[in-house]
Amino acid sequence: MQKKSLITGISGQDASYLAELLLSKNYEVHGLLRRVAIENQEERLSRINHIKDKIKFHYGTLESYPRLCEIIEEVKPDECYALAANSFVQVSFEDEFSTMNTNVNGTHYLLSAIKRYAPKCKIYLACSSEIFGKVHEIPQTEKTPFHPRSIYGISKVTDFYLGQYYREAYNMFVCSGLLFNHCSQRRGLEFVTRKITNAVAKIKLGKQKELRLGNIEAKRDWGHSKDFVEAQWLMLQQDRPDDFVIATNETHTVKEFLEEAFSYVGLNWKDYVVIDPKFYRPAEVDILIGDYSKAKNILGWGPKIKFKELVRMMVDNDLKIEKNKIKQ
Questions:
Q1: Could you tell me if residue 261 is inside a domain?
Q2: Active-site residue (options: 87, 128, 176, 225)
Q3: Which of 46, 93, 109, 180 has the largest count of CB atoms under 10 Å?
Q4: Residues 234, 237, 241: CA angle, nearest 5 degrees
């Protein structure tokens, strides 16, 4: 029998790769989509335009509990992937209340709606390495204490405990993925990795002269989104729900990302990068590096795309995009 999946945040980076994966496995894929997305489909649905005819869209937002109930009652999914969120950390410092409202209430509403209308549905909650914040140990595992340093991180800690509560109180199949930084060619331009590769492409083509960044000494564990969504799917194929760190076991500074991206096109990053204090966080997270041993042992998962390959894939993609703009 064909499985039905519901993905919130269907137009996002992870959701696009996940939808491709699920379609390849013959799932019936449903996606929660904000109505504003249809006003400019070419841009807002750019990540899923190539598969949008294969997805059944449901218009609504995480903030509307009645609408979520209607969608869950209608779809009755076998699996739900809760990927929608206010996920840009820097904005969470500026707009604390909408970040908490969307991320916490949205997750709570979704869990409650599923409990009411599809209690057998397996649920994946997208948590984040930002929950570790001011880290208490290196590397971080599923047992590392939480110490978030942003409203976004705090919201994801709450999501984690909401998932644990519904799992223990109502015997629901809820898994939280403690995903470390992951990006791809489909990453939004506001995120530092894509900001860098997009700037590299523009500078190489003479369309931009400098790149302004904040703390380039911050260390992160970067993987590819395509690898990480496979882990999300694997979590829901298990007999018992559990929480997993998904990472690469490697850490690199933003400076290393810069060096790799600029040198790949024959440029020296020092000639173009300007450190701008306005991009520093009020409370910095200095180092994140995850130990994915549990995911390896239980899920049989491991990252396939390495750091250098990830950076070069992103640069190549942005070069292609910017060259096409010139042709137009």
A1: yes
A2: 128
A3: 180
A4: 95
Give yes or no: 128 in active site.
yes
Annotated active-site residue 130? The verdict is yes
Q: Which of 152, 166, 264, 292 is catalytic?
A: 152
Q: What is the CATH number of the domain that holds 210?
A: 3.90.25.10
For residue 216, count other CB atoms closer than 10 A to its CB: 18
Kindly provide the b/e burial profile for residues 251-282, where b requires at least 16 CB atoms within 10 angstroms of the residue's own CB: bbebbbbbbbbbebbeeebeebbeeeeeeeee
Count structural domains, the chain.
Answer: 2
The two tokens of residue 162 are: 């909401």
Residue 204 and residue 178 share a domain: no
Q: 152 an active-site residue?
A: yes
Task: State whether 211 and 137 are in the same domain.
Answer: no
Residues 213 and 130 in one domain: no
Q: Answer whether residue 29 shows pLDDT above 60.
A: yes
Chain CA centroid to CA 26, Å: 23
The structure tokens listed for 51 are 């598969």
Give the model confidence (pLDDT) of 213-242 as tens digits. Answer: 999 999 999 999 999 999 999 999 999 999
Contact 196, 257 (CB under 8 A): yes
pTM of the predicted model, to two decimals?
Answer: 0.93
Determine, yes or no, domain membership for 300. Answer: no
Is residue 85 in some structural domain? Answer: yes
Q: Which of 125, 141, 121 is nearest to 176 (CA)?
A: 125
Residue in 5, 92, 109, 130 annotated catalytic: 130
Q: Do 106 and 86 form a contact (C-beta atoms < 8 A)?
A: no
Question: Would the pLDDT of 37 be above 60?
Answer: no
Domain containing 207: what range? 188-220+250-288+307-327
Question: Cis ω on the peptide bond leading into residue 282 (within 30° of 0)?
Answer: no
Q: Are 155 and 193 in a shared domain?
A: no
292-306 pLDDT tens trace: 999 999 999 999 999
Q: How far apart are CA 22 and CA 30, in angstroms?
A: 10
Matching residue, tokens 């331009």: 189
92 and 199 share a domain?
Answer: no
Contact 61, 34 (CB under 8 A): yes
Mark whether 133 and 213 lie in a shared domain: no
Q: Does 91 have pLDDT greater than 90?
A: no
